[in-house]
Write a structure and sequence with these properties.
about 350 residues; alpha/beta; eight-stranded parallel beta barrel; about 50% helix; about 15% strand; globular; disordered N terminus
C-alpha cells in the first residue's frame, strides 16, 4: 500500500507540474486564464509606442473547426488581446473560404459564429477577414459589368475566344473553391458581420492576360472598380498582396516599381482605403520570407513601398515576435517607418 500511495502521489505531483509548466497535453496557462501571451502583447505595445496602429490577427476558422470548446478558448484569448487599449480591431480569418477546408454550405455558418463572437466580446472593435477571389482575376464577370465601367469596356474588346477562356477559368475556380467565389463574398458582405474586407484580386499571370488581349494592370483596374461598386458601400475595402521574398530581393528596381504600381497604386486609385502587404518576416514552407533583405537591409521593393508611404498611402503589414530579424525595438522601428498599421499575431496557433 505504501508503494502504491507513493506512486499515486508522484503521479499527481508530476501532472500538476506539467499543467503549471505548459508541457505535455496541458493547456498553456495564458490560454486557460484567457490572457494573451506576454511576448505578443509586448510587440503590440512596441508598435503603438512608435505611433502606428496595431491590430490582432487570429485563425478563428481553425478554432471553429476544432469544436466549441477550442473555439471558446481561442475567442477568449483573442478578445482579451483585442480589448487592450490602442488595439484597432481583429482579423479573424486568412484567405477565408480558400483552401481552408470550408465548403459553400458551412463557410457562412462559420463566419456568422466568428463575427458574432467577436462583436459580442469586443463590440467597439472592428472585425476583418481577408479573401482571395480567383474568379475576379478570370474576368468573366465583365460580361455583366455596368455600362461605362472598365469591366464593360474590357468585355466589349475581348475576342470570342478570349471570352470563352475567361468563362472556363471562372467555372474551374468556382469548382476548386466554392466558398471563395464572387457570389460567396457577396453573401459574406451582405450578412453584415464584417467591417473590413482585405481583398486579393486573384490576378492571373501576364502571359495569360496577353493571350486574352489585355494586361495585368488593365485587369487590376477593372477588378478594383468592380469590387468598389459591389462591396465598397457596405465594408471598408482594402487590397492585399504577398510581396515578401526568400533571402535578398533579386529583382531590378523596375520590377519592384511595376509590382507596387499594380498592387498598391491601382487599388488605392480605385476605391481601396489601404493595402495589406504580407509580410514583415515569417517562416513559410521551409524558408523565411521578409520584405527587407536579411538584417533589415533596404532593397528596391522596400524603397518603392516607403515612397508610397511618404506620399500618404495607408500600408499595413504582419509581424510575429517569433520571427524578428534583429530584435523587437529595431524591427518595429524599421517596420513602422513604412507601415502605418501592423497585424500582430495572437499566439493562439
Amino acid at each position: 500500500m505504501r508503494r502504491l500511495t507513493t506512486i499515486l502521489v508522484t503521479f499527481v505531483l508530476a501532472a500538476a507540474m506539467g499543467a503549471c509548466s505548459g508541457t505535455g497535453n496541458a493547456i498553456e496557462p495564458t490560454h486557460a486564464a484567457g490572457k494573451p501571451r506576454e511576448q505578443y502583447v509586448a510587440l503590440a505595445d512596441a508598435v503603438l509606442a512608435q505611433g502606428a496602429q496595431a491590430w490582432v490577427e487570429a485563425d478563428l476558422v481553425k478554432a471553429w473547426r476544432a469544436g466549441p470548446e477550442r473555439f471558446d478558448s481561442v475567442v477568449g484569448v483573442v478578445a482579451a488581446f483585442v480589448a487592450r487599449s490602442g488595439i484597432g480591431g481583429v482579423k479573424i480569418a486568412d484567405e477565408f473560404g480558400y483552401g481552408d477546408g470550408l465548403g459553400a454550405s458551412d463557410a457562412q455558418d462559420a463566419l456568422r459564429s466568428m463575427t458574432a463572437a467577436m462583436h459580442d466580446r469586443v463590440p467597439d472593435r472592428r472585425v476583418l477577414i481577408d479573401v482571395v477571389v480567383p474568379q475576379l482575376g478570370c474576368l468573366a464577370w465583365q460580361e455583366s459589368a455596368s455600362p461605362g465601367t472598365p469591366g464593360a469596356a474590357g468585355w466589349a474588346t475581348a475576342t470570342p475566344e478570349a471570352r470563352s477562356r475567361m468563362r472556363r477559368c471562372a467555372e474551374a475556380e468556382a469548382a476548386k473553391n466554392p466558398a471563395a467565389t464572387i457570389a460567396a463574398v457577396d453573401g459574406y458582405v451582405r450578412d453584415g458581420g464584417i467591417d473590413v474586407l482585405d481583398l486579393s484580386a486573384g490576378l492571373r499571370d501576364d502571359a495569360e492576360y496577353a493571350a486574352w488581349g489585355t494586361t495585368r494592370d488593365a485587369a487590376m483596374t477593372a477588378i478594383w472598380a468592380e469590387a468598389s461598386r459591389r462591396w465598397g458601400d457596405r465594408v471598408t475595402l482594402q487590397a492585399r498582396k504577398a510581396l515578401a521574398h526568400d533571402g535578398a530581393y533579386d529583382k531590378p528596381a523596375a520590377t519592384a516599381e511595376a509590382d507596387v504600381h499594380t498592387f498598391v497604386d491601382i487599388p488605392l486609385a480605385n476605391g481601396a482605403k489601404a493595402v495589406d502587404v504580407w509580410t514583415w518576416s515569417q517562416p513559410y514552407r521551409g524558408t523565411t520570407r521578409q520584405l527587407t533583405d536579411p538584417g533589415l537591409v533596404d532593397n528596391a521593393l522596400v524603397t518603392a513601398l516607403r515612397a508610397r508611404r511618404e506620399r500618404g498611402a495607408s500600408l499595413w503589414t504582419h509581424m510575429t515576435p517569433s520571427s524578428l530579424q534583429k530584435g523587437l525595438e529595431a524591427d518595429v522601428r524599421a517596420a513602422t517607418s513604412i507601415f502605418g498599421t501592423v497585424f500582430v499575431t495572437s499566439g493562439t496557433g
